[in-house]
Amino acid sequence: MNARQGDVGTANTRLSVYTFHNAHHKRALYPYPTVSHFHIKTPFGYRPVSEFSYGGEVRPPLAPDAPDEEAIDHLWLRANVNGVQRERWFHTSGTRRWYTIVRDTRTNLVLAQPGEEYQEGSA
Amino acid sequence: MSIEFEGREVAIQPGDSLAAALYRDGVRVFSRSFKYHRPRGLYCLSGDCPNCLVTVDGEVNVRACQCAAKDGQVVSRQNAWPSVDRDALNVIDKMHPLMPVGFYYKTMAKPKFAWPLAEGVIRRVAGLGFSDKSDAPVDIDRVNRHPDVLVIGAGVAGLSAAIAAAEGGKRVMVIDEQWTPGARVAAGPTKEAIDRLAATAASNPGIEVSSGTAAIGIYEGPMVLALAADHVAHIHPQAIVVAAGGMEVHRIFPNNDLPGIFMGRGAARLAGAHGVKPGERAVVWAEQPEAVEHARTLAAAGVVVEAVVTAPGVDASGVGNRQIEGSIVEAKGRKKLSGVVVKTTGGSTEEISCDILAIGSEIQQNMHLPRLVYDLPCILAGDSAHPGSSLSEAESNGREAGAAAAAGLPLYVNPPASKPRTCGTAGYVCLCEDVSVKEVEQAIDEGFESAELLKRYTTVTMGPCQGRLCADQLRAIAERKTPSEAARVSAPTTLRPPVRPIQIQQAAAGARHHIERHTPLHQRHLEMGATTLWAGPWKRIFSYGDMQAEYEAVRHRVGVIDVGTLGKFLLAGPDVVEFLERIYPMRIADLEPGRLRYGLMLEEGGVIIDDGTVCALEGGAFYCTVTTSGAERLESWMLDWRDAWGLDVFVVNQTASLAAVNVAGPHARDLLQKLSDDPLDKETFPYLRHRRITVNGVSCLAIRLGFVGELAYELHFPAAAAVDMWDAILEAGKEWDIRPFGLDAQRLLRLEKGHIIISQDTDFETNPWKVSMEWAVKLDKPDFVGKAALVRAQRRTPRETLVPWQMEPGMATPPEGMTVTIGGNLAGRVTSSKMSYVLGHPVGLAWVVTEHAKEGGTITIGGAPATIAGHAFYDPEGVKLRA
Predict the structure, then answer these.
(1) Is the ipTM of this complex over 0.85?
(2) Does 1.10.580.10 match the CATH number of domain A39-112?
(3) Residue in chain A lying closest to B393 (CA)
(4) CATH no. of B797-883
């Protein structure tokens, strides 16, 4: 089910058990549904993010002949994206391997798991 | 059995809570309110309101209704002077006009000196109990649990869910904050249902019911934090069923906080579960059918039910002296309830005299836990899903939730939005923080319109109850006052853990639990009287009691140190040389099998993060060691670079599978030759070489290194052989009076050689130039991590340089960290310092501003002169280690 579908159920629908993904409170001041927790796909299945350590955003390597300005930015600055970013996670308490995912930093939704292609707008 | 209550004995009965025992004894006022010192009595009896906070055996703010009465407890009430019954501070209640909401922001700001004075007074007058600061902190255990399904709440829905999940083959854990399931439910159909289900659950080996355990938060993982009597549990289930039940809505009307006013379930608990008669004459306000049961419970306990005030549609016929359709609009009384004003649906008002009022208002979900679940695999059941469920609804609903949890599906639920509430126009919204409707309205008039701002300004929802009574009411007032902004204003305030009050020491439970890694020789070391210290996650050996003797053994005879904590990596694969060339700043490609090289590790900024050795093995593989504390970090660091470069390399972490000992001293060769038939002589096995040799029957990788400055062999071999190897070495070394040595001796041995320890002598901006290790960096290599930064750093002279220094014999050794001055100006600091036994004077390393960092220069360390040395203090030519 599409994660951005908002209020699928309310207290008025007398379903006995609500079973759907990522439906959240309406947050008037913040228009995105957010999640506090997500899973990353490993060869041993989807594992909770609490097993991983964050490794930061994926950055292009620094060219050996880059000008000083660029080298300094590369060393000290990060894009700190408010939106979709490719990033690295190390499976500290598990497979001890790195995984690259695409995540929306505003919502914590994983838009592409390791090995999956991410296309703009595909979320 | 009895407790001591404010200097007198109060009898207790089995099953009593403190609240029940004290109420039976005639105590009616249990606390004084937070700000205005209004008398407050029992209200909810479910741990949801702040009215019964007392001090028990020195522990403040214990909820009397949730605390089991035990023989000999010392109990007293809080926040009143001279006593809770006659509280002089109640005069503040007459001063409302002088104390508008947020008055301390407004009135004490000027003149400036007023606030510190006022603050002292306010802190004493307002607030809760005073904690005994002399108590030693207690380490509370943290326990990790891993059931398949966790059910929160052992009511009808929760137990049904647990049974259904267990029938689905799952291991189920049920937690409930009561002593036993249903302990505080009055006799009746609900109690019978719980007893029946609890008996079924108890006979099912797949279900563990953990009573007296309160869930206080649901976190990602999912992980549920729960407080038990003697420990804090971190529960990591696959699925969670939240059946945390419901509670009655806090109703607001003038004097709604008088002692004698109960929530319906509270009055029923007192009368039905504890057998304590709450009063003589009761009015019951029945907004829903369950409240009619409460009226029956009260009547059965001998209370005269003067009237049952019902909402339209609630049938109370035959219960109580009268039935009136209407609602309660006001309570009368000064220190306790004397009557209520009823407004009938017809519009007339009438005053009824009574001493207790039981408010059986609409049931709302205990919203705190359900609102924390977000996208976690949680399923709501019972009142948590549908507030006001009937018994049969709760049971079928619970079974459905349990079956869904057992199916192992990642089910996600949306907590039902809280319903719009109505709210009276006067009375106390917030019992915890003593805030009335009028004050909230005034704050809105001042411009604090959104619920979040109102909360922060008035502190409504911020007290011990954390908004469970008042959050919806706050929202209702905000909506009523500013209907045009309703959408924005009505956002519910954010609920956060803890759901129940917890002690700081409970929050810190397990803070002092550390992963403690031991080498296979650890027990041997302890048997020899070793003292230990932390090194990363490892416990390493500091000393075996006589550091100088350990030192002397290495310098003059032979010693052995356990270096099994070193990070040990086997690297292999088609691209391994290319990989190592890029990881290390020195050259790797020309390293022939059998040789080894010291290597720094740099991060991208050129800062030294680790050091160790690289051994080229036969067949193209490499064996690398890194420092004790760096092993974990560097494994992920290396793998990250490998992925970034796309190189075909395997990195195998052998840190735990291999043991390592370093046999060092002039007799090291003689000793090992006793245990090995392989040639160890200088020509076959020279310095900076490694060989695979058999020692004591075990194949070892032997590495000739010089960290301590003597002839030394570092043996790496399977961890299982460690103890035998250690014993054999000590036995063989007896003829040279061998000694095991610890880090303390090793630090002096290396300091005499001028070797640095990464992170003791270096910091977060130390590059190789600053520590005079240009020889370890080959800038003519195409690329390596940190090269871009080092090339640029090379253009400038570093501000400070690390230099070795020595003092004259007889001078005191300055402590590490001591400042270095030159001509009275600050010029650096000491990073290592020790008294050298072989030289007879203090030696060390220090950062010194580069222009003064010249060999032979004089610096002042803590007032004493020291000379900068140009080379290692001990054996500068390295003759001994090449022996």
Answers:
(1) no
(2) no
(3) A16
(4) 2.40.30.110
